[in-house]
Design goal:
The chain is α+β, with helices and mostly antiparallel strands and 94 residues long. Helices cover 37% and strands 28% of the residues. It contains three helices and four strands, in the order H-E-H-E-E-H-E. The chain has a four-stranded antiparallel β-sheet with strand order 2-3-1-4, covered by helices on one side. The chain starts with a helix and ends with a strand.
């Protein structure tokens, strides 16, 4: 099951295309429990031009952010976006 989820995540990022090729950031989020949570966070992350896409794993409560090629985003900005969606950042791993 875990391998299937990892493979699906990798495939979805590959399908984003080269315009979104960049670094991946994993963010552990407190309060992430349902699809509504995932949608709220996804909407907020799309507001930043550095973010090429995001995937939310509700089981692990981790948001995976894919940056656009050549773009950067600070931990502070990630925290602002997720907090604005109503959730709390536990840890950011680059």
């Amino acid at each position: 099951m875990k391998r299937t989820l990892i493979a699906a995540t990798m495939l979805s990022f590959a399908m984003m295309g080269t315009a979104h090729a960049g670094k991946i950031i994993n963010v552990k989020v407190h309060g992430l429990v349902c699809d509504f949570c995932a949608q709220a966070i996804g909407i907020m992350l799309k507001r930043d031009p550095a973010v090429g896409g995001s995937r939310i794993n509700l089981n692990n409560k981790v948001v995976t952010i894919k940056l656009r090629n050549g773009r950067k985003i600070s931990d502070r900005r990630i925290t602002q976006l997720i907090t604005a969606a109503g959730y709390q950042v536990v840890r950011i791993a680059r």
